[in-house]
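Regression test case RT-17, inverse folding.

Input:
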């Protein structure tokens, strides 16, 4: 079986690359998907539909266009990894985690100890909490190929 793993959250570090490289090195049968990780492109996703003079409506329009991708990818994934960094608030990642939970999709959170408290509900619904991308790779190896 080829697994579909959705990578959600923080876009300012290379955690996605680390997980993908680790899975590749282990020969894991995984296809990775993700929301748009280009901040500027994501913010401008709805601009093609018409210029908005109010930042609320620009964000609203772009979030709907972005949701076409994220909604479909989340619904098709077998498991997700939801990353929260310490520098920025990832409200979109929290929303993704809630959507994953509502769909009954298993997910692993990835964050350090400094934000355990604000993520307590998100972590409570997760199937696991990892502190490093390498831990995520270890969990994926076990889950998708029974190779710990």
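Golden output:
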């Amino acid at each position: 079986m080829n697994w579909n793993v959705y990578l959600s959250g923080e876009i300012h570090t290379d955690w996605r690359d680390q997980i993908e490289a680790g899975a590749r090195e282990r020969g894991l049968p995984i296809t990775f998907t993700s929301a748009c990780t280009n901040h500027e492109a994501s913010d401008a996703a709805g601009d093609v539909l018409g210029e908005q003079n109010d930042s609320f409506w620009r964000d609203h329009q772009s979030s709907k266009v972005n949701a076409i991708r994220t909604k479909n990818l989340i619904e098709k994934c077998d498991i997700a990894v939801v990353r929260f960094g310490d520098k920025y608030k990832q409200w979109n990642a929290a929303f993704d985690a809630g959507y994953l939970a509502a769909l009954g999709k298993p997910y692993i959170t990835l964050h350090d100890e400094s934000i355990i408290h604000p993520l307590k509900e998100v972590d409570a619904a997760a199937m696991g909490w990892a502190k490093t991308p390498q831990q995520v790779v270890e969990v994926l190896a076990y889950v998708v190929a029974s190779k710990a």
